[in-house]
UniProtKB/TrEMBL annotation:
This is Cation transporting P-type ATPase (Probable Cd2+/Mg2+ transporter). Signal peptide: none annotated. Keywords: ATP-binding, Membrane, Nucleotide-binding, Translocase, Transmembrane, Transmembrane helix. InterPro entries: ATPase_P-typ_cation-transptr_N, ATPase_P-typ_cyto_dom_N, ATPase_P-typ_P_site, ATPase_P-typ_TM_dom_sf, ATPase_P-typ_transduc_dom_A_sf, ATPase_P-type_domA, HAD-like_sf, HAD_sf. Residues 1-58 form the Cation-transporting P-type ATPase N-terminal domain. It is found in: Membrane. One of its GO terms (molecular function) is ATP binding. It is a multi-pass membrane protein. One of its GO terms (cellular component) is membrane. The chain crosses the membrane at residues 59-77, 208-229, 241-260, 635-654, 666-683, 703-722, 728-745. SMART domains: Cation_ATPase_N.
């Protein structure tokens, strides 16, 4: 169909008049988010404790609990705002591109520059960025984003396709009829995933609350039994019991996770990787199998014709000229570009088709009609079903040299192109780095087995290369270097197969048919030239070609993992130390060696420093990680046990020395704050804590916490005052205890 698009000058004028084809996202409501943070499990526990403290007339404690509740809500809303800002900046780089006819030539532009009247080409995998009146062709559309209906809709010339819908099949020409706020969807079209399921780290929150509440529950029962045996008033125990549960709540955990993921997403965006789903970063640490597309990832996204064999009675020039009828001129694939370059090199004139059908993976070829001929360009395997004589003619062609592309002229084999992808210069080193990190790379390609084996050998992949037809139950990833003859539809089955076998699977892809596999994989990675719907289905999007950016994703995942491991260990250890020390001291000595006000201040200070762990320095490990909550709990409670023994000995010594119970309470508060800071330093590194400095934010908050602790203790604010000697004693005991514990802890951890 002959159509005429706008000139660039006309488009510029309309763009100036109507504005960009986008609608600002709804403004983030801080107070709405703040209110939402007051309605969750952690908030409910705090709110229940607040009501209990008020009912018992403990107004000072009530004030501190209220401050904790408001802090948790304010901090959570603040970090959410920062996260939204990060994703918003990334989404600007994930705006779809569209093929537009301007100045009588097809070009690809950012969809936000579309204007009314633009002629666009739509094809499978596109996400529409404006309302478009179809002029020619047929489309199958997924309109669930605007109608909520999952059933696909079929549309032809004369119908309108709406912004936000996805082209599931077909190709069509259309004219833009409405952009921005005037489009039916009236929303910004980007590829950010805002409705992803929680990652492993978010699920960890529930487990940590469970472990801590279980510990508090056991200690509560012990205390109540002891109080009954001693004939004490149980009501007097309630404020302390409430404070134990308050101290157990991981107030800063959601904020720490958000901060760490956002921090890494920003870092990755500067390194050529865009994050469309923050959970993709944290899951990368667990990755142990990576299924890799050959073209555009291992090889350069550029294909060249290595040889041409003519099987017709026509001259080479005549066959090549007719071949141009079946080349897609609107949305050129790497094969189309390679053939066009070859024709230009041979100075063959390009013919315009009277009718053209683009390539689809299900059909296996493109088709053009003109000059009295029907020309098909595509898979030799598919063509063998049309022309049975192909197998005999193909015997003279060395298919191991590269990928074969056949030409059928009036349903008879006319020629064979052998095309070859160039291996990227960084592929071999990048694959070696992946293997070094405990990840098994397996190459996927539509090429034949011989071609795939040649590429696998060139880049150093170990194992055998099999055809997809030989991929059967029992195949192990460790035995494979690659899988050949793969169709996009096969990839989902392979991802599911390996997941069922126990692997954490990463997957790279670019086409619409790759989308299910990208979505199924724990870490779906869309390559730089991927279709919009593939980017929408993935968690990570590469801006640069090649494998090197994938290594950066792994590094980011390990950094998040290390920070969250530190957070989990410190939260479990500090809380267990506090509750066990106070419980056993009460049972043995008959009093609580810490003021309730001090308990709340201690909890707030700990949340401040642990929140900063999201920005801490880390070390990169070279093996896939695993969130083993049982192992974390054992390590944390072992640390807590050691600190509790030392703390109990300290309380015992003070009690025997006849130190006033009020002063003991303040000194224990100082000891617990100092020990909490030391636990962070011990668990954050694989070396002794004095050999590795934390990040500036972590160190700054730790120093501020210790200075504030000293100030409160000396001035007697919210607790009985103590002197310099009484202040230095618990600080020194905690510091020496940290050295002793770390001398045992680090050698044990190195053997884990």
């Amino acid at each position: 169909m002959k159509v005429k698009g706008l000139t660039q000058a006309e488009a510029d004028l309309r763009l100036k008049k109507d504005g960009l084809n986008q609608v600002p996202e709804p403004e983030f409501s801080f107070w709405k988010e703040f209110a939402g943070k007051l309605w969750n499990l952690s908030a409910w526990i705090l709110e229940a404790a607040l009501l209990l403290e008020c009912a018992l007339g403990k107004w000072i404690q009530s004030l501190f609990v209220l401050l904790m509740l408001l802090f948790a809500a304010y901090n959570g809303a603040t970090q959410k705002k920062k996260s939204r800002k990060v994703l918003s900046s990334i989404s600007q780089q994930l705006t779809p591109v569209v093929a537009v006819l301007r100045d009588d030539r097809w070009q690809k532009i950012d969809s936000k520059y579309l204007v009314v009247g633009d002629i666009v080409n739509l094809q499978k995998g596109d996400i529409l960025a404006a309302d478009i009146d179809l002029l020619d062709g047929n489309l199958t559309l997924d309109e669930s984003s605007i109608t909520g209906e999952a059933k696909n809709v079929h549309k032809k010339a004369g119908a309108t396709a709406f912004a936000g819908t996805t082209v599931m099949d077909g190709e069509a020409l259309g004219r833009v009829s409405a952009t921005g706020t005037n489009s039916r969807s009236g929303q910004t079209i980007n590829l950010i995933n805002t409705s992803a399921a929680p990652g492993h780290l978010q699920q960890l929150l529930t487990k940590i609350i469970y472990y801590l509440c279980l510990l508090d529950g056991v200690l509560t029962v012990i205390l109540l039994i002891a109080a009954v045996i001693r004939g004490e008033n149980i009501l007097e125990m309630l404020p302390f019991l409430a404070m134990m549960f308050i101290a157990s709540i991981p107030v800063a955990m959601p904020s720490t996770f958000t901060l760490s993921n956002s921090f890494e997403a920003t870092r990755l965006s500067k390194e050529g990787v865009l994050t469309s789903d923050l959970t993709g970063i944290q899951d990368a640490a667990n990755l142990n199998l990576l299924l890799l597309d050959k073209t555009g990832t291992i090889t350069e996204n550029k294909t060249a014709v290595a040889s041409f064999a003519n099987f017709s009675k026509l001259s080479d020039e005549e066959v090549l000229a007719l071949t141009s009828l079946a080349i897609d001129q609107r949305n050129q694939s790497v094969i189309d570009l390679a053939l066009m370059d070859f024709l230009q090199e041979k100075k063959i004139p390009v013919k315009e088709a009277e009718a053209f059908t683009p390539f689809t993976s299900s059909q296996g070829y493109s088709e053009g009609r003109g000059e009295g001929h029907d020309v098909k360009l595509g898979s030799v395997k598919q063509f063998s079903k049309i022309d049975p004589a192909i197998s005999e003619q193909m015997a003279a062609v060395d298919l191991s040299l590269g990928r074969s592309v056949g030409i059928l002229l009036d349903d008879r084999l006319a020629g064979i192109f052998i095309t070859k992808d160039k291996v990227r210069a960084d592929s071999k080193a990048a694959l070696a780095e992946l293997v070094k990190r405990g990840i098994k790379p397996v190459m996927l390609t539509g090429d034949n087995q011989k071609t795939a084996a040649s590429v696998a050998e060139e880049v150093g992949l170990t194992g055998k290369v099999i055809s997809i037809s030989d991929f059967k139950e029992g195949v192990k990833a460790e035995d494979l270097a690659g899988i050949a003859d793969v169709l996009p539809e096969d990839k989902l089955d392979m991802v599911k197969y390996f997941q069922k076998a126990g692997y954490i699977v990463g997957m790279t892809g670019d086409g619409v048919n790759d989308s299910p596999a990208l979505k199924q994989a724990e870490v779906g990675i869309a390559v730089s030239n991927a279709a919009d719907v593939a980017k929408k289905s993935s968690k990570m999007v590469l801006l640069d070609e090649g494998l090197s950016p994938i290594v950066k994703i792994l590094d980011a995942g390990h950094r998040v993992y290390q920070r969250m491991t530190t957070w989990s260990l410190t939260k479990l250890a500090r809380t267990a130390e506090l509750t066990m020390l106070l419980t056993f001291s009460y049972l043995i000595f008959g009093y609580l060696p810490m003021a309730l006000n001090a308990m709340v201040i201690y909890t707030i200070m700990n949340n401040m420093v642990t929140m900063m762990i999201g920005t801490d320095k880390t070390h990169i490990t070279y093996k896939p990680e695993n969130w083993d909550m049982g192992k974390l709990a054992k390590i944390a409670f072992s640390l807590a046990g050691a600190w509790t023994i030392i703390g109990f000995a300290f309380v015992s010594a003070l009690t025997k020395a006849g130190v006033n119970h009020d002063q003991v309470g303040t000194m224990v508060y100082v000891f617990l704050v100092m020990s909490a800071m030391m636990i962070v330093l011990i668990t954050r590194t694989k070396r002794f804590f004095w050999q590795s400095a934390p990040s500036k934010p972590v160190a700054s908050v730790q120093i501020a916490d210790i200075l504030l602790t000293c100030l409160l203790a000396l001035l007697g604010i919210a607790m009985p005052a103590i002197g310099i000697k009484e202040l230095l004693t618990p600080l020194a005991v905690a510091f020496l205890a940290a050295i002793l514990i770390d001398l045992v802890y680090q050698p044990v951890m190195k053997n884990k």
